[in-house]
Amino acid sequence: QAGLTQPPSVSKGLRQTATLTCTGNSNNVGDQGAAWLQQHQGHPPKLLSYRDNKRPSGISERFSASTSGNTASLTITGLQPEDEADYYCLAWDSSLSARVFGGGTKLTVL
Amino acid sequence: EVQLVESGGGLVQPGGSLRLSCAASGFTFSIYSMSWVRQAPGRGLEWVANINQDAREKYYVDSVKGRFTISRDNAKNSLYLQMNSLRAEDTAVYFCATDGFDIWGQGTMVTVSS
Question: Per-residue pLDDT tens for A8-22?
């Protein structure tokens, strides 16, 4: 099953802004948007944003999501060392009747 | 405390079977759709299956269709994944999660090897 496309890695400096992208198609991202999850090594994923780019309680305002057409984006402002992690997008694909993950982006904070 | 705890992982030979369990506590399990997600060593996340609140709707990733079965027991606040005809490529940490993905377990390791 085809997944969503994410850049394998992104590097940004401390306190800078990183924008991570997730490209799908009209059956997934373009239809219902995407959720974003953060995963630190050895830990389960953590939800950062969900449908309609909402943030769960407790998630910093430094994380914001948006969608334009078939591409979802996660913007992280004021990068901190603890933001260094893997980031995954996730969407429901109506043509597959399945959820699909992106391959993940490893964010390095320099 | 809101919690999901997986169990049942282990080492199994190719072609063998395992049944994973996920015990929920601290929230109303019966009103949530649930998912299983796996992560092979050093790899990304892969959604495996989900089940709606009353177990009438179940969906699977193509690679496990016909081999894995997701089920739930709302009276026991538990989610299950029956895995048959296991292959080496099924080796992964298996996580259970609410289908909104706001609650995750810590995962259980499944290793398929002879």
Answer: 999 999 999 999 999
